[in-house]
Amino acid sequence: MLRRHLLGAAAIGTLARPALLRAQEGPIRIGLMAPLTGVVASGGREMVDDFNWYLSQRNNEIAGRKVEVMVEDDGSNPDTALQKARRLVEQGRAGLLFGNLLANTGLAVANYVKGTGTPYFIPIIAADDLTQRGRIKNVVRVAGYSASQTTRPLADWALKQGYRKIATVSQDYAFGHEQCGGLAQTFTEGGGQIAAQFWHPINTADFSPYLGQLANSGVDAIFTMQTGADGTRFIQQYASFGLKGQIPLLGSMNATDQSVIRTMGPEVEGIVTAAHFAEGSDNPTVQAFVRGHVARFGTIPSLYGFSMYSGAMWVAEALEKINGRTDDPNLLIDTVLKTDLVGSPLGRAVRLDDLGNPIYDIQIRKVVRNAEGKFWNAPMASYPEVSQFWKYDQATYLRQPPYSRNFQGIRR
Amino acid sequence: MNSLNLFQLLNGLTFAALLFVVASGFTLIFGLLRIVNLAHGALYLLGGYIGYAAALATGSFLLAVLAAMASVALAGLALDQGLLRFVRGFELRQVLLTLGVAFILNDLGLLAWGGDTFTVPVPEALRGALRFAGVFYPKYRLFVLALGLVVFLLLWLLLNRTRLGALIRAGVDDAETLEAMGVNIRRIFLVTFMLGAALAGLGGVVGGAFLTLYPGADSEILVFSLAVVIIGGRGSLPGAAIGALMVGLLNSIGQVMFPELAYFVIFGPMALILAFRPLGLFGRAA
Amino acid sequence: MPRAGPSLPRLGVALGVLLFAALPLVLPTYQVSVATRILVFSLLAVSIDVLAGYTGRTPLGHGAIFGVSTYVTIYWVTVAGGSPWAGMALGVLAATGLAAVFALLAVRTSGVYFLLLTLALGMVVWGVCLRWSTVTGGENGLRGSVRPAALASQVSFYYAVLALVLAATFLVWRLVRSPFGLTLRGIRDSESRMRALGYNVPLHLFIAFTLSGMAAGVAGAAYALFNEFVSPTTVSLAQSVQGLLMAIVGGVGTLFGGFIGAAAIIVLENTVSFYTERWQTVMGLMFVLLMIFAPEGVIGRGLALLRRRR
């Protein structure tokens, strides 16, 4: 599956020729980084698998040129990611970079490509400011989303259910602050109240200290932002402490992503989240993708697989328009920004806003058991055309500070 | 809202019980063999994975526990006889060797189990929660608490009421004299190493059912176990119990009351204890 | 731990310096950045060797000391808006201060306990960097443009780091060859004898630890300019472990071996992780094999054999 080859030899072979000539013949060289080791390794593996799956469907060719994917493990570690990005660009002569999963790895690489101008596509990295206050033009979120984009419709939906008072439990880092912030701001601006916010470190083994306080807090619902193993543990402990069935549980999209729930049981049933992708949708395009994924890899696709597959498609379509040229980063970036994603597993077209973040129909999803007895996220409501700025004026919104533990945009 | 109540006390105690099971194995090996086994966390995770696989295959939690304990004891045997025998008597070389083994086991676990998060299934009787004294508390966690007490009791009986235990205790204090008296100390060392490893395996299955299994769980439990043993003192069972209680309760309190300083709350006191009582609260000089 | 051999022949050191000085003339850009990395971590390995090789105390917390300097330097430049030079000075100062605190707590211990205590102290630093997110940026860390304009090119930056690392290593070398260094070796070989002779053992260890931390701080400050990014992984246990591995591969108690160890590990990492994702296994195996067959380090062992032959 993984295409590997000796970069050094290839680099020496191309050294002597003029830059333009070199870039226009030869293969399209893509540097793909994913965490193949470390805490989020299973997500990283799926990223690589689905990226390559898409390319294999077009015979690893774009605009008649061969595509060479150089896969590098970022080790779930930002220092390693930075080092690998350097190697891919400076030694591997990658025309564009793709990938990374954890926000800190993405931010480290983004800081680097800011200097080199290399196009860097981030279907998974959701850090708000990469397409907001700290936008870097050559960093584009193809088929990705910004962290606070999808929790705002969830807050609106929660208000419509009559929830007035909620508490949040979230991982204590920027991604958590942002997802929680989007929800807290929209929820309180709509008249709701945030009773309490708990921030716990990533990889919290034991949630009982927080659950103990939630049990007696008298809230209408609880929102939890979790990724990876924390998601599994939180949902399980939520059930074993008897809170499931007593207080409705809302979550960030990662909390009930397939990567989390595919190894879990009935404790996941009924959790409500919001995302642009819902593997349980009855849209035939979505189902064709899900079936294809199950047939090929044996698992229902997670957000990681979906996003990389669609991101690869997005950039490939842009590259088709410019004959696969990667020698001019600006041309590639401008073309991608103008390209709409049409044939993706979302089942409908998506465009990018002028800061390089997609505008989606956001689905409110509920975890249900499907016909085969597996749990998945099925849509039950939809918010059309949700941008990263929700209903706010872009310029006004960008004047407010980025979300942090201390700023959650809460209106009292 | 940030007050300490029965609920949080129970949380601290149940976590302490698990820590005790894992750390008691660690401290036995450290005490008798003078080996700081940094692969102990990896053995915990290995036990958890094996227990998970066994539980799925047989549907029995008890069989899962037995399978995990037996196979991790064998892994301990392999580690001791296959690698550690080459560095006998060199404390630092042993530590760094086990560190290397921890890296390898962690990576092989990732290769074999793929990095997803698994939870060991719990028997039906232990699911759900009990209501008492105004709190609603998961049965399984109460089971873990009881298990911690049982393990403490069994280990105490083993160490204080059996011949093997007497030899182990004597070995902790003075292995050379014991050997000079004609006791086959190597055999006792090996048995202790396997017992310590088996306890890590037991911890892996029991912990894997409520803390889940994932790459990285090994180093987390290792760091907590280190804290327990450092606080309690090498080779001391009561020390491990007190250390586990301290770390378990500090963890529970720290997360609620000082979220920004959560690590400091555990490791600050530990560093202080080690600085002023380098051998831990119950440690004795060799 | 093994004994320190006699100092490397001057010729070897001169050749080594020449080799490092000539590297950018023959290497492509990416390899120059790899070489810069090797230099930075060489100094970290050298600083660890001061303790492991000359006082007989193996630390597992130097990654934290190194990383704190990186944090302070980057914070000073990107958040406080100061100059990189002042940032580096403050970084080194912070690392030295932190090392002094570590030393105060650790000098009474030795052997495994010294290792565990430094490990625990390093964990505290890591925990603080991770959770004190208003200052450290938490999990995401701090980043920005840190390198001074004069050193923007990869090659000029390489030479600046080379000069800095060589100067620092020279000072450390002078330190361990001085009467003070001889006393340290005396402590390593027999603490009780040195005590009986009237030496203030804890004070000597305190000074050695603090100066070793200072050297690690210089490396950390250089790393700040090199990486322009810092996160809790920079102060993590893995960093301390890797630094120690480099020191051991190079040969404990050889000081200059740190350069060879850092080069060996980083070159290996750059080739091995390219063919396989099993870098962790490779690193683990290295530890296991080293401890069994050559605890004094591959290079140290080779040199010892060479010396014996002459």
From TrEMBL, chain A:
Pfam families: Peripla_BP_6. It comes from the Bacteria. InterPro entries: BCAA_transport (IPR051010), Leu-bd (IPR028081), Peripla_BP_I (IPR028082). Residues 27-368 form the Leucine-binding protein domain. GO terms for biological process: amino acid transport. CDD domains: PBP1_aromatic_compounds-like. Keywords: Amino-acid transport, Signal, Transport. Belongs to the leucine-binding protein family. This is ABC transporter substrate-binding protein. The lineage of its organism: Bacteria, Pseudomonadati, Pseudomonadota, Alphaproteobacteria, Acetobacterales.
UniProtKB/TrEMBL annotation, chain B:
The keyword Transmembrane helix applies. Pfam families: BPD_transp_2. It is found in: Cell membrane. Keywords: Amino-acid transport, Cell membrane, Membrane, Transmembrane, Transmembrane helix, Transport. The chain crosses the membrane at residues 12-37, 49-74, 95-114, 140-159, 188-215, 221-249, 261-280. Its main location: membrane. One of its GO terms (biological process) is amino acid transport. This is Branched-chain amino acid ABC transporter permease. It comes from Muricoccus nepalensis.
UniProtKB/TrEMBL annotation, chain C:
GO terms for molecular function: branched-chain amino acid transmembrane transporter activity. The keyword Cell membrane applies. The keyword Cell membrane applies. It is a multi-pass membrane protein. Its main location: membrane. It is found in: Cell membrane. It comes from the Bacteria. GO terms for cellular component: plasma membrane. Keywords: Cell membrane, Membrane, Transmembrane, Transmembrane helix. PANTHER family: ABC TRANSPORTER ATP-BINDING PROTEIN, HIGH-AFFINITY BRANCHED-CHAIN AMINO ACID TRANSPORT SYSTEM PERMEASE. This is Branched-chain amino acid ABC transporter permease.
